[in-house]
Amino acid sequence: MSELPRKKSAAATTSTYEAAVHISDAPEKIVLAYSGGLDTTVIIPWLKENYPKCQIIAVCVDVGQGGETDGLEERAAEAGAVKCLILDVREEFITDYIYPMLKADAVYEDKYLLGTSIARPLIAKALVDVALSENATAICHGATGKGNDQIRFELTIQALAPDLKIIAPWRIWNLSSREEELAYLADRGIPAPMTKEQSYSRDRNLWHLSHEGLELEDPANEPDFSRLLQLSVTPQEAPDATAALELEFCQGVPVKLNGEALDPIALMDRLNALGGANGVGIADLVENRVVGMKSRGVYETPGGSILYRAHRDLEYLCLDKQTTAFKEIIRTKFTELVYSGEWFTPLREALSAFIDSTQETVTGKVRLKLYKGSVISAGAESPYSLYNENLASFTTGELYNHYDAEGFINLFGLPLKVRALMRQKAEGAQ
After folding, report:
1. Where are the alpha helices (DSSP H) in 90-233?
2. Are 206 and 63 a contacting pair, CB within 8 Å?
3. Looking at beta carbons, which pairs linking 190-193 to residues 24 or more positions away fall under 8 Å?
4. Domain ranges of the chain
5. Catalytic (active site) residue 2
6. Which class is 10-199 in CATH?
7. Catalytic pick from 62, 90, 117, 149?
8. Most buried among 174, 253, 271, 346, using CB within 10 Å?
9. What does the DSSP 8-state code read for residue 259?
10. Are both 10-199 and 208-319+362-381 of the same fold?
11. Is 149 a residue of the active site?
């Protein structure tokens, strides 16, 4: 494939949405990360106009978008793709990506549970698999030049298939807004998947639903939850009664809900329904993107928020002090790697190996109550619990002698005592 051109200046174009030049006349197959949304709907005709002999294979990687995958094959064909593949990787998404992140307790900037971040490496991996099986020469994605997803997609492609070319239209075409994209489709008689008034940028999977755009672009604006939320009700609209539940974990992985063994997808669906009905997991965050700018998003992560609380409660019971403290350090770095798309890296794999070793005893049951957006701890138990009632009770037991504390404090405080004596001596010498 020839080198991609630089975007032309506005003065050099004949239309606000005209491509800069025809990029290549060579016949080739291009695998497109296809969601059926506005950007990827526009990209199909754009590719056909700028790669006149190319064949476009639209690939939708199903990580739990729900009804968003309905009718994608017809819509992709209508826009000009030669085929559309829908790949169901939902269970792999949970077991091989979400669960390792859950075991790490990874949360970005104390609010974001990394729903979009953790899905992108798997989506890119699936695109690479298709590209290799179809003998494609390039992968195309619809991530913008301002966002994190371009990094996440392209780092994964480079790690898994460095010979594949990458096409990122947002970095080279002359479209600059959603309004121009809608006009582009209208001029070509291609139905748009949304209207201007409903043009939130959303990303949905089994773990979360994110929202950006419209009133959210001004951090001073309150989110319009009446048209924003799709998985959840607001805490104000949640029931007045608490909803009780019990989660059972085995080595850091959830396996049962209220005593019933469930497969990963069914468990996630049930927790999302429970959390959403009780207003759990709504986060409004102005975050720091990898590229250096701040952006504002609203995230719905109902089931994930429940799992995080339950998992942490069990870790508090089962991990010793030093492991807990060091895991907090690991958690921060692991979170950074997930957020920036560095999943297929030696460091992430090494951190996951450490984290897995810490989870060997994170087995047991956790009870929670959901109430108007809150997740309330209601008890935890484990055969590996390090909590010893004989030690912790106010009643004196056999394992702890109160008098031993005096010697411990004297030794623990010895540096403070030595420093104080030194200062007294120095002051007396003046």
Report:
1. 90-93, 99-104, 115-133, 149-160, 178-187, 225-228
2. yes
3. 190/41, 190/45, 190/78, 190/79, 191/75, 191/78, 192/38, 192/41, 193/36, 193/37, 193/38, 193/41, 193/75
4. 10-199, 208-319+362-381
5. no
6. alpha beta
7. 149
8. 271
9. T
10. no
11. yes
Return d(Cα 328, Cα 286) in angstroms, integer: 23
Phi, psi of 267 (to 5 degrees): -60, -45
Tell me which of 24, 35, 39, 232 is the catalytic residue. 39
Determine which one of 88, 129, 171, 201 is catalytic.
201
- Angle at which helices 149-160 and 115-133 pack, to 10 degrees? 40
Q: How far is CA 176 from CA 2, 62, 184, 316, 375, in A?
A: 24, 28, 11, 49, 42
Known catalytic membership, residue 39: yes
Of 62, 90, 105, 120, which residue is the catalytic one?
A: 120
- Locate tokens 């924003």: which residue? 228
Does domain 208-319+362-381 bear CATH number 3.90.1260.10? yes
Angle at alpha carbon of residue 362, lines to 358 and 365, rounded to 5°: 170
CA separation for the pair 172, 69 (Å, rounded): 28
Walk along the chain (430 residues) and give the pLDDT tens digit of each residue: 333 333 333 333 333 333 344 455 555 899 999 999 889 999 999 999 998 889 999 999 999 999 989 999 999 999 999 999 999 999 999 999 999 999 999 999 999 999 999 999 999 999 999 999 999 999 999 999 999 999 999 999 999 999 999 999 999 999 998 889 999 999 999 988 876 656 688 899 999 999 999 899 999 999 999 999 999 999 999 999 999 999 999 999 999 999 999 999 999 999 999 999 999 999 999 999 999 999 999 999 999 999 999 999 999 999 999 999 999 999 999 999 999 999 999 999 999 999 999 999 999 999 999 999 999 999 999 999 999 876 666 565 677 778 888 999 999 999 999 999 999 999 888 7
- 375's enclosing H/E stretch is strand 374-381
Q: Is 35 among the catalytic positions? A: no
For residue 50, the one-letter residue type is N
